[in-house]
Design brief:
The complex is a heterodimer of chains A (174) and B (468).
Chain A (H helix, E strand, L loop, with lengths): L1 H13 L1 H4 L27 H4 L6 H8 L4 E3 L9 H16 L4 E7 L6 H21 L7 E7 L10 H7 L1 E7 L1
Parallel strand pairs in A: 2-3
Antiparallel strand pairs in A: 1-4, 2-4
Chain B lengths: L1 H8 L4 E4 L4 H4 L4 E3 L24 H4 L2 E4 L3 E2 L12 H18 L4 E3 L17 H6 L4 E9 L5 E9 L4 E10 L4 H17 L8 E8 L6 E8 L6 E2 L7 E6 L5 E6 L6 E6 L4 E4 L7 E6 L5 E8 L2 E8 L2 E6 L7 E6 L5 E6 L6 E6 L6 E2 L6 E7 L6 E7 L1 E7 L7 E2 L6 E6 L5 E7 L6 E7 L5 E3 L5 E7 L5
Parallel strand pairs in B: 3-5, 3-6, 4-6
Antiparallel strand pairs in B: 1-2, 1-8, 6-7, 7-8, 9-10, 9-32, 10-11, 12-13, 13-14, 14-15, 16-17, 17-18, 18-19, 20-21, 21-22, 22-23, 24-25, 25-26, 26-27, 28-29, 29-30, 30-31
The chains are: A alpha+beta (174), B mainly beta (468).
Chain lengths: 174, 468
């Protein structure tokens, strides 16, 4: 999704509406983070420097630096090289904390019908899960859930917002 | 919730044989199992009543005077409309609004019209209505029974012919008084148009509040005119895609109650719900068979969604589709023999048919763009669906996939649901950027489109059948 990454900068400048839900200051080269739990700066301090609990969601977000989320083209669910790099980063962290479990949340943009988007989100979440499993992560550690188009992170109705919403987000399970 | 149960428990309308004269109305009515006047065949040779289904223009122009329903004795009632006299006026307002809001005929009244006396209900003062240029006249009465139930009589007259065209009477509980109005509107509509009735029906839908990224979605129900509105869930768990059972006793819907999206059967009589099937896999897109004996749902296993069928009383689910694509939804033909559903096995969402046992699967939509959420008309002659080609629009096609026609043209209209008589389609419209949703309806000409009144945002309408 190189195109998606390129528009990230423009979004930060122009998409104040889209970003209002995000509490984070994402690095310019990365898309805005969908969850409000992350703390990040461009210098990427270690979790211990930040006082984050090891193996926690905050630790995971800090470690992955935006790679907790992968993005998809319209109606697609394939893992491209950008997604693969993000999932490898996630797998790195999962290997470091073998007792942790995660849920991959699959999402779709608003430009589809509700039920199909629920099925599509499930398919995307499973694509991410399968890639993690192919990297050696036990399938029992990875749950999936689909929110379809019900939980957008970017609130606009334009191509940039939709690109941000077609995503699979990995979150830790407590 | 409690009141919803009460409503349904009391919802047994009885038809009564109407007395031949107002004098006999004073007597206890004979309770009959059948409506007195339900003939819907148009009287072709009678002036002003010639009706063809394909051309609605003639009957649409009929001017109908709807008068306040009279009462034999103005006494307090247990309804929220007041005394029997006030109730008579309220019932005629229900009738007039049903016709007016749906763009049917040219209704007038009850405001501004003469109020017939009780004794006039069955003996209209025709010259008065001829002077007012009314083509048709609706009169009626309200009478309270000793137990608090109400007897409502409804009469339709042809003013030029000075002739009674139809009559019917109902006994309704106080909480159900509006149904008498809907039944009367249905009688008038059916008699004059030749179509099946649809006003006395209910709608389940999803009430939406809050901003786009934190929207509360609650299961809600209402009458076809938006009255008797009730929320069934609190909104703590996102609720989606309800479907009324054909007998209105249950609602199928999706809830995130246990984390994973799962289909529940909500029992309106016991105020309880159960999972359609126990599974760790997500279940979505619930549907009833026309006879209420079967439930369709879609389940994703390892990301692959297929359609399943299970008996409404439980048992082993049967898998109907097995393509590696997304197979989802499903809508039975009125005879229950076939199912129209959505699949992206060809690469994009398209509409497919299969037999009710899953055999003979074949694609029917071949007109460009994507085709989603197919719903078979209760008449069997059309399939409504969401056509996605840039914007999302509601469209219809024949069951063989031909004669596709758009009925709406907006930024995002989706999820059509049919009126009980297959003449009107409801759907929900999403506003660009804000994501605000609202329920709309459109007739099969595509010309008469209007928004339904709902207290808050509204999506996923599911129109139930005509009530018995």
């Amino acid at each position: 999704m190189p195109a998606n990454l390129k528009i990230g900068t423009g979004l930060i400048l122009a998409g104040s509406l889209a970003l209002s839900a995000c509490a984070t200051n994402a690095p310019e080269e990365l898309p805005p983070q969908p969850s409000g739990t992350g703390t990040s700066t461009s210098s990427q301090p270690s979790s211990s420097e930040l006082g984050l609990q090891q193996g926690s969601q905050a630790d995971f977000v800090n470690f992955t630096q935006g790679a907790d989320t992968i993005y998809f083209d319209t109606d697609r669910y394939n893992i491209d090289s950008e997604d693969a790099a993000s999932l490898q980063k996630q797998a790195q962290w999962l290997n470091r904390y073998p007792n942790t479990r995660v849920t991959v949340e699959g999402h779709a943009d608003e430009r589809g019908t509700r039920e199909y988007n629920l099925a599509l989100g499930e398919r995307r979440a499973n694509a991410a899960k399968n890639y993690l499993v192919s990297l050696g992560i036990s399938p029992s550690r990875v749950n999936t859930i689909s929110y379809g188009k019900e939980r957008p992170v970017a609130l606009g109705s334009d191509e940039q917002a939709w690109a941000q919403n077609r995503r699979a987000v990995t979150v830790t399970v407590n | 919730m409690k009141s919803a149960l009460k409503l349904l428990a009391l919802a047994t309308t009885m038809f009564v044989a109407l007395p031949a004269s107002a004098q006999e109305v004073q007597e206890a009515p004979t309770i009959a199992a059948e409506p007195v006047a339900t003939e819907t065949a148009p009287a072709a040779e009678e002036g002003g009543l010639t009706v063809t289904v394909s051309d609605e223009s003639e009957w649409q122009d009929l001017g109908i005077a709807i008068t306040s329903f009279a009462t034999d004795r103005d006494v307090p009632t247990q309804t929220n409309a007041g005394s029997t006299a006030a109730l008579g006026r309220a019932i005629s307002e229900v009738i007039a609004n049903d016709l007016r809001n749906n763009g049917l005929f040219k209704p007038a009244g009850p405001q501004g019209l003469p109020q017939p006396q009780f004794s006039e209900v069955q003996a209209p003062d025709y010259p008065v209505w001829q002077l007012r240029s009314a083509d048709m006249l609706v009169q009626g009465y309200v009478r309270q029974q000793s137990g608090g139930n109400l007897v409502v009589g409804c009469y339709l007259y042809d003013v030029a012919l000075r002739m009674e065209l139809a009559k019917a009477g109902w006994v309704v509980s106080a909480g159900d008084w509006r149904r008498a109005g809907h039944k009367c509107a249905d009688l008038v509509y059916s008699r004059l148009s030749g179509e099946s009735p649809f006003f006395d029906s209910r709608i389940a839908y999803i009430a939406e509040t809050g901003p786009k990224d934190r929207r509360l979605k609650r299961l809600a129900v209402m009458d076809s005119d938006g009255a008797n509105h009730r929320y069934l869930t609190s909104g703590q768990a996102t609720a989606l895609t309800p479907r009324y059972s054909p007998d209105y006793s249950k609602i199928l819907y999706l809830s995130y109650l246990n984390g994973q999206p799962s289909i529940y059967v909500y029992d309106l009589q016991t105020d309880t719900q159960r999972l359609v099937t126990r599974s760790d896999n997500p279940t979505i897109a619930p549907r009833w068979s026309p006879d209420g004996r079967w439930i369709l749902y879609s389940m994703a296993i390892a990301g692959n969604t297929d359609i399943y069928r299970i008996s409404a009383s439980g048992g082993e689910p049967q898998r109907l589709t097995d393509s590696p694509g997304i197979d989802v939804g499903g809508s039975f033909s009125p005879d229950g023999q076939r199912i129209v559903f959505e699949s992206d096995r060809s690469g994009t969402q398209q509409v497919y048919l299969m037999d009710a046992d899953g055999s003979n699967q074949r694609r029917i939509s071949f007109f460009g763009g994507r085709a989603a959420t197919p719903e078979w008309s209760p008449r069997g002659d059309q399939i409504a669906f969401t056509h996605i080609a840039g914007d999302l629009r509601v469209a219809v096609m024949n069951p063989n996939g031909r004669n596709m026609r758009h009925l709406t043209d907006s930024w995002q209209d989706e999820a059509p649901t049919w009126s009980p008589n297959g003449r009107i389609i409801q759907f929900f419209r999403t506003e660009r950027n804000s994501g605000k949703t609202s329920i709309w309806q459109v007739d099969l000409t595509g010309r008469n489109e209007r928004q339904l009144p709902t207290p808050v945002g509204a999506s996923d309408p599911a129109w139930g059948p005509i009530r018995e």
